[in-house]
User: Fold this.
Amino acid sequence: MPELPEVETVKETLTQLIKGKEIKEVTITWPKIIKRPDDQEAFRTLIHGQTIHEITRRGKFLKFHLDDLVLVSHLRMEGRYEMSDGQEADKHTHVRFLFTDGTELRYRDVRKFGTMHLFEKGTEETALPLAQLGPEPLTPDFTPEVLKRAFEKTTRNVKAVLLDQKAVAGLGNIYVDEALFKAGIRPNAKASTLHHEELVRLHQTIVETLQEAVDKGGSSVRSYVNSKGDMGMFQLHLYVYGRQGEECRNCMTPIEKLVVAGRGTHFCLDASQKNKC
Ligand SMILES: [Zn+2]
Assistant:
């Protein structure tokens, strides 16, 4: 699933590809992707003739800023935007945006879990799905205090809290595992048991890990590529994610994999026993 760094990279490439284009027509072949309005004909009518002025990111969501509307798009597992190459769209293409200049943006999604919500400009942040998101981790809004407040009153483990987007937006399985490893915190530790120093360290490793991944174009694990078809490079810099059985880069202990918060979770046992390996 694309996480903050991958969605940020998609945002950047989409901006280069479609900023300033006017939407002539939208074709929808899998209406369940359109969540708001719930009538796909209304969606098509509203978006007709709108120009794409800017694309931004909020958590793992893309925001397409149109004339007086905002399209909020979540890629979920396998969603991907790409420009038409002139070939006929395949069966995994579910939404097509035809522009007045003759070019076409295609939304492909093998798993069909992606979502699109259309809002009047200015109302999107106070409605679901964006209203439930915690602060952006790469802004001053995200502080150790934010983590403290999210962690102190829950019985859940730290990984579950970091995944649910309410404490902080944009993290998924890859970057939670990486940030916890670098902070020397076990993913299955009870969130409420973390000490102040651990919270400060975790805040720092979340910010550093995400920023480094953004700088490297995200992680190309599974099928992730940006909207120009380019791979990210951060997968070469992962310490634990996807490295089960391989030696820890710090202490040579084999990386463990187990299920935490319902997700495959990677960590160095040595790191979490000694608080650093
Ligand atoms: Zn280690």
Summary: The helical segments are 4-18, 40-47, 144-152, 158-163, 173-183, 196-215, 269-274. The chain has a mean pLDDT of 95. DSSP finds seven helices and eleven strands in the chain. The CA atoms of residues 20 and 236 lie 35 Å apart.
